């Protein structure tokens, strides 16, 4: 009740402000009905404006015949034909559950700030993407920004809940209450690289030689020496760190083999040394310390290699997105972490005025292949053509293609295959998930409420030293200074709290 009162007050403040986050919808306001519907309600003994029975009770919106508009905020690039596709898909959604979707696609670089602004201002959007790396789930939970949905999912989302293993659904639970739905995709994390095929062939790159991240170095040397207009590698993950450690509670690191938990600032030392070495060898772009958005260079295929998290079918997906052929090479082993699955989830805004309809819509998109794939690929004949059963190809110069972003909005295993993706890809992904090494802390979630001050101080230090390891003239001095600053900010206090909670959690198992 307290949350609802606060939300209502914030919503009132928001109504008087010019701030906006999830873009304004041009659709009729939720709750409006046609004159014919209003007349039918009057004959049935209801108030025409409120939809309440004449005895004062209020009917659910769907019983009043109203079409509720659900606003869903997702990071990404809005397609030119977005409105056309949404208009068409909404005809089908309305027929199925009498709901309309307002899918607000927000540039990823703006998503964090805009969603935080929307949440704290009390905006009444309904569904929102959340993760541990974007629109932080933990941060939103600390602000009571998400609605508990255990009962709503039990009543309106049984289909999507039953389509995933309990261990995946549990990642979005706090104190036994469900607060989000994980989007099904690759859950196990395995390091890998995608490489421009023309460069791999030009320099005789041997795919079978990749066992460790350092095995890519001879190829990167060739790029440095011979391809002056190209960046050797786009490094998106800390492969050396992740080979040995799993992050627990943001600033603690658990050794995967021994289970020892130490400050992350210590665990990152070897990774920082490698980053510095690669920068000095020319593998890393010179402006790495200051660049905030390299998407234009990625789109222009200026990187010979991208180091990221591997998944089956990765090269086909990358090739389709980049309009240039790439090959992929997995390295190291697959691992399911304590909170794997938190990377892509959908939550219900605590200020949503229609949470029941929001969960109904999420359930539909999550389980209905027709709806899901139209949101991804657009309209047949205009944006894509069917090649064979479950296989499609994008129409040349199509003005709509959200296909590679299936992981942002539901169950990727329901997506149609794109050129280069073979039958059985989703089964292979599921197999990788199931056969990966599982963290000894699977199911453990760190509660940072006792160390919030330290977490804030550590975040400030992390931001201050971000990317500094690349350009440091004396990497050992840089590491020592960084570790000292993290110690002063309270990292050992956080590690002690993590160890205490882990011990308590293990004792309860």
Overview of this structure, please?
The structure is a single chain. The protein has 509 residues and is α/β, with parallel strands linked by helices. It is built from 22 helices and 18 strands. It has a five-stranded mixed β-sheet with strand order 2-1-3-15-6. A four-stranded mixed β-sheet has the order 8-12-7-13, with helices on both faces. A three-stranded antiparallel β-sheet has the order 9-10-11. The longest helix has 18 residues, at 491-508. The two termini are 33 Å apart. Mean pLDDT is 87; it is low at 1-21 and 23-60.
Which residues form runs of ≥5 with pLDDT under 50? 1-21, 23-60
Class by SSE composition: alpha/beta
Main β-sheet, in a few words?
5 strands, mixed
- Biggest sheet: strands side by side, in what order? 2-1-3-15-6
Overall spatial form: globular
Radius of gyration: 25 Å
Measured distance between first and last alpha carbons: 33 Å
Helix content: 40-55%
Total E-strand runs: 18
| Helical run tally | 22
Mean pLDDT: 87
* Percent of residues in β-strands: 15-25%
């Amino acid at each position: 009740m307290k949350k609802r009162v606060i939300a209502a007050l914030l919503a009132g403040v928001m109504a008087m402000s010019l701030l906006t986050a999830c873009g304004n919808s041009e659709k009729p306001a939720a709750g409006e009905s046609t004159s014919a519907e209003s007349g039918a309600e009057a004959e049935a003994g209801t108030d025409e404006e409120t939809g309440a029975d004449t005895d004062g009770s209020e009917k659910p919106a769907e019983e009043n015949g109203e079409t509720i508009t659900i606003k869903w905020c997702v990071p990404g690039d809005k397609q030119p034909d977005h409105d056309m596709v949404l208009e068409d898909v909404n005809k089908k959604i309305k027929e199925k559950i009498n709901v309309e979707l307002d899918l607000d696609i927000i540039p990823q670089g703006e998503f964090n700030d805009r969603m935080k602004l929307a949440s704290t201002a009390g905006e009444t959007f309904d569904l929102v993407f959340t993760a541990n790396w974007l629109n932080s789930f933990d941060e939103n939970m600390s602000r009571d920004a998400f609605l508990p949905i255990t009962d709503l999912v039990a009543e309106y989302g049984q289909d999507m809940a039953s389509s995933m293993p309990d261990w995946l659904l549990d990642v979005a639970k706090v104190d036994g209450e469900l607060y989000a739905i994980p989007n099904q995709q690759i859950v196990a994390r395995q390091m890998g690289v995608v490489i421009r095929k023309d460069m791999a062939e030009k320099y005789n790159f041997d795919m079978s030689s990749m066992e460790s991240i350092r095995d890519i170095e001879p190829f990167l040397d060739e790029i440095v020496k011979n391809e002056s207009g190209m960046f050797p590698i786009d490094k998106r993950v800390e492969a050396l760190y992740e080979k040995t450690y799993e992050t627990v509670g943001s600033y603690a690191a658990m050794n995967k083999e021994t289970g020892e938990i130490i400050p992350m600032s210590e665990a990152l030392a070897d990774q920082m040394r490698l980053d510095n070495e690669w920068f000095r060898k020319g593998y890393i772009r010179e402006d790495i310390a200051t660049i905030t958005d390299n998407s234009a260079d990625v789109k222009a295929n200026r990187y010979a290699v991208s180091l990221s998290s591997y998944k089956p079918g990765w090269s086909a997906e990358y090739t389709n997105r980049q309009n240039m052929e790439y090959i992929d090479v997995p390295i190291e082993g697959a691992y399911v972490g304590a909170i794997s699955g938190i990377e892509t989830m959908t939550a219900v805004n605590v200020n949503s005025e229609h949470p029941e309809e929001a969960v109904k819509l999420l359930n539909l998109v999550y389980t209905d292949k027709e709806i899901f794939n139209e949101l991804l690929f657009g309209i047949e004949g205009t944006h894509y053509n069917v090649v064979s059963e479950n296989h499609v190809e994008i129409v040349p110069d199509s003005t709509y293609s959200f296909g590679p972003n299936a992981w942002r909005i539901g169950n990727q295993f329901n997506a149609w295959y794109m050129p280069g993706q073979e039958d059985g890809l989703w089964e292979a992904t599921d197999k990788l998930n199931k056969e990966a090494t599982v963290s000894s802390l699977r199911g453990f979630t760190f509660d940072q409420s006792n160390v919030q001050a330290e977490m804030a101080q550590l975040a400030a230090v992390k931001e201050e030293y971000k990317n500094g390891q690349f350009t440091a003239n004396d990497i050992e001095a840089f590491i020592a200074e960084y570790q000292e600053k993290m110690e002063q900010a309270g990292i050992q206090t956080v590690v002690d709290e993590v160890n205490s909670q882990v011990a308590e959690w293990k004792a309860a198992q």
